[in-house]
Amino acid sequence: xxxxxxxxxxxxxxxxxxxxxxxxxxxxxxxxxxxxxxxxxxxxxxxxxxxxxxxxxxxxxxxxxxxxxxxxxxxxxxxxxxxxxxxxxxxxxxxxxxxxxxxxxxxxxxxxxxxxxxxxxxxxxxxxxxxxxxxxxxxxxxxxxxxxxxxxxxxxxxxxxxxxxxxxxxxxxxxxxxxxxxxxxxxxxxxxxxxxxxxxxxxxxxxxxxxxxxxxxxxxxxxxxxxxxxxxxxxxxxxxxxxxxxxxxxxxxxxxxxxxxxxxxxxxxxxxxxxxxxxxxxxxxxxxxxxxxxxxxxxxxxxxxxxxxxxxxxxxxxxxxxxxxxxxx
Length: 329
Prior knowledge:
alpha/beta
């Protein structure tokens, strides 16, 4: 029942996000307004600024949520491009994502996810807006990660995981990570983003995963129907999360019935998932569910919104394997 609940939660999050993002895309241009509002800074000593599940596990997942926020107008009439982590209405979709991901992936591991002033979906319509707005949420998560290391982790092995905007921020944490912290990192999962060659060359703590059980490594993938459906630049790091290979060997994945179509028409899909070694993209064949295309930045045939959903069982098993294979265990 708990797994079924998690599946429904994650499905609801994606469907609610679709409706919200469609409204924001229709009503907001993504341009910088004359007067902007910036919500107050989260205090990570305050338990309300965390979604946490401590089950006394041997290792942790530190998860950074994706974009669940659009441009909005606070009561003073200004425009805000960042989530207010103290506002219940803006926290709700972020909480739903965290809860769904925790139930799908954590298993016996502890789960810690900070609320942060994530920037709006409109912030990703061009590189200049992203560059201007991403530093604020990145700084929030940087402070949250420091609090987690100092007060929560207690020298346990940990998984660093981020999805979409959260994956971009996780890359900054990897770039800045000290050797002591890195020595406890079982793996980093950069889901739904790309890793440029420049960053791979510059950052000694980004070590591409080569198999299912290596530790201290980085996992990255992006799923598409074909290479023309990509929305991110080519990633220098990529692996198939079904067979954990970095060559083009295809893997078979049988999905659960899709929550995105009526019950009387649901069916299991038998997918073929293969890494295209030229584009570094996961090519997914056999998916019958109707595409959900992200407003503003999406393309039909890009499975960005499914990156955790499709591979949840494999990800959960692999996170446990890497965490419990860590040398400190």
